[in-house]
Amino acid sequence: MYLHKNEDTYSKFWKIEIADCHVNILYGKSMNKGRQIHKNFDNKLQAFKYYRNQIYQKLQNGYQSTEDKIKSADFDDNSFNQYIQNREFEQAIQWINLLGEFSELCYEEKLINALLLDNKQVEAERFIFGKIKNCLNLQIVVRQIRNLSSMNPLMSRIMIGNLPAKPEDTDLIEYYTHFAIAQSRMGMIDASEKTLLNIENIEVKIIYLANLLDTYYVKSDLQTGILNKALSLLDKITLNNDKMFKLLILLSKGARNIKQHQLAVTLFENAQKFSS
């Protein structure tokens, strides 16, 4: 981003660029070569926070962009919160879109929840569809589809059917946890075989299968088969006590949900053996 500022007798320029975990700044008097600052960060998030804060400070100090639409408010969290408070949802969406791939920092969930509270379900669905199309922030997208499933099951089925098959740069356990619960609540359990093909990690497979049983419906052969498949996978991996305890508790809950109470008790008792 290129900014400039006019003083009484001269003008100054300030340019900032971000690439992965690196931020480069070039600044000085106009028509001069300028000076450079290089900053390296541990991750993209830290780099972006620094990048965004530097732009905000320069715009606050009188620097201007060649693009008139860019204002200091565009880089200030308080502006976003004000848009939500005032129910200025279009401005909030524009504020989020301005930040592109870093939009997870900009409280998509807060926007969607505000839209739903204001009975603007269509706008919420449209916003989520936009995120699905751009494959951004999949944990948030799937979590919101899960939350929307009770309000509009048909729309939620369409949304989850359009999610990318193999999410990248995301927490797989969180993603497939919400994915499974959303599928289960929308009656899409029969799609589990296809989903399983996209999961390489056995632990994640078990977590996904266990969460498919988040239904509280009567027992069915399909759900029993899913639970048995998860139990058979459990024999193929070695995990530490904490992870094994959590997996068995999750499977116990799944067995209880499909009315396999004796199996649920057995799994719970086995989990206690791994409790620290």
Give the topology.
Blueprint: E1 2-6, E2 11-19, E3 22-29, E4 35-40, H1 44-60, E5 64-65, H2 77-85, H3 89-98, H4 108-117, H5 121-134, H6 138-148, H7 153-161, H8 172-185, H9 192-196, H10 202-211, H11 221-234, H12 241-257, H13 261-272
Antiparallel strand pairs: 1-2, 1-5, 2-3, 3-4
Helix pairs in contact: 2-3, 4-5, 6-7, 6-8, 7-8, 8-10, 10-11, 10-12, 12-13
Description:
The chain is an alpha+beta fold. It has three domains: 2-65, WGR domain (q64v53_bacfr protein fold); 76-170; 193-276, no CATH class. 55% of the residues lie in helices and 11% in strands. The chain has 13 helices and five strands. Strands 4-3-2-1-5 form a five-stranded antiparallel beta sheet, with helices on one face. Strand 2 (11-19) and strand 3 (22-29) form a beta hairpin. Helix 6 packs parallel to helix 8 (172-185), helix 8 (172-185) packs parallel to helix 10 and helix 10 packs antiparallel against helix 11 (221-234). The protein is elongated and about 85 Å long. The termini are far apart. The relative contact order is 0.06. The mean pLDDT is 80.
